[in-house]
Amino acid sequence: MLDPKHVINNADQLAALYGDVAEVSQKKEIDFIHPLYQALIQASPFAVLATSGDGGLDASPRGDAPGFVQVQDEKTLLLPERRGNNRVDSLRNLLTDPRVALFFMIPGVGETLRVNGRATITVEPELMERFAVKGKPPKCVLVIEVEKVFFQCARAIKRSRLWDEQATQPAATLPSAGTILAALSNGSVDAKRYDDELPGRQQDTLY
């Protein structure tokens, strides 16, 4: 059990622990998509979408060609929702709580971009066609009203060595998707068969 005297549970304690917010950290936060922030979004092929709702919290990956999240204007982002495993945890959350947070990453770049706002789910035909890939539209599109934008410094990326090829973990040293599913399903999933079929299945269902 944690000793209560060592637990941080109020803002004054946090301020004493970390000190004042640096002036530059305050100045980088704005409520619209500055052209320089737009350049980061257009270069990003990967983002994490965070939501909260009746089903709990969710943070899940989104990825496609760089710029797959489009800047409609300085207050609006458009995020196509592609096919997946049909859990749609993020979308279910948005039905009861429209708040979202996006975390954009660019391979090889230490700085990341954070965007907070509120999302609406739409299947408006023009938008669906606009985001079609290989003739296949997304399942829906999130129209995100931007409320806060700021870049995150590179410390976490540097500490993790995320883009350092020498720090790459060989996939063969980790449990495969099939191995995990076989264990969690008490053997009802054939691990080898699942792993053998997975690359082709993923490629065939990207869009």
Automatic annotation (TrEMBL):
InterPro entries in the record: Pyridox_Oxase_FMN-dep, Pyridox_Oxase_N, Split_barrel_FMN-bd
Gene3D superfamilies noted in UniProt: Electron Transport, Fmn-binding Protein, Chain A (2.30.110.10)
Residue span(s) of domain Pyridoxamine 5'-phosphate oxidase N-terminal: 35-153
Entry superkingdom: Bacteria
Signal peptide: none
Pfam families documented for this protein: PNPOx_N
PANTHER family with a match to the protein in the record: FAD-BINDING, PUTATIVE (AFU_ORTHOLOGUE AFUA_6G07600)-RELATED
Classification via NCBIfam families: PPOX_FMN_DR2398
Name assigned to this protein: Pyridoxamine 5'-phosphate oxidase family protein
Species for this entry: Halopseudomonas laoshanensis
Lineage: Bacteria, Pseudomonadati, Pseudomonadota, Gammaproteobacteria, Pseudomonadales
